[in-house]
Give the backbone structure.
Amino acid sequence: MNYRATRIMLGLIAAGFVLAAGEARSQQAIAPPFQSKIIDENLRKAWSENKLTPAKMANDNDFIRRVFLDIIGRIPVAEEVRDFVDKDKGSNKRARLINRLLNSDAYKIKDADGKELVFEYSREYAEHWADIWTVWTMTRGGTHEVYHNQIKFWFERQFSKNTPHDELVRALLTASGKGTDNGAANFIMAHMGEANPPDRRISDGPFDSVPITSRVTRLFLGIQTQCTQCHDHPFNPEWGQENFWGVNAFFRQTNRDRTPAPPVG
């Protein structure tokens, strides 16, 4: 699954993202909605098991606002709302809107005066998700803005060419080189700890890799592993101390020739 399916967690537009996930940018086609049927079936099962009554389906005005915020990070302008709500009478219009926001680099709409407006949705999508992933990987502070910009530009390129999720994560975790040449290298550089004493560098690596271990497992596996640094997890027996240090051993191989500059100074 690639990043065009990432926001499936939101639920309200999950089906649309899966529809667009496998499409080549050149085809601009809408896939059959079998993915949404699978999602709906599982949601109905969960509602039934928990005796819940789902909310009513959002109307077109609510939907376009939500989907714009989720995919490209802004609310639609009036012309975009009218184009979707009033002018688009075709079937499957919501899936087609999502496909357009993910893929179109020159969508044209005429305003009330007949003036043509051109929207670069694919660029907005890449920039929006690059912003989100820059915060997730680098946090909002801790290092100088230049490192944030370097990895942000790298993310923009990945989203623009729809890099699959596994390839993107692999690139982040195995990056090498200078941040100016490879923006992905900033992620691990920013989260390595202090240099280890000389007598511990053979066994523990050049730097303390506990911070990057905790961040990687939380960000990419959704698991809080901090407590397993010292002992097995008290509530999840499948999370053992050896799991934390197994991941940690990978990052002990990491070296850097200098420490990233702080936000100021």
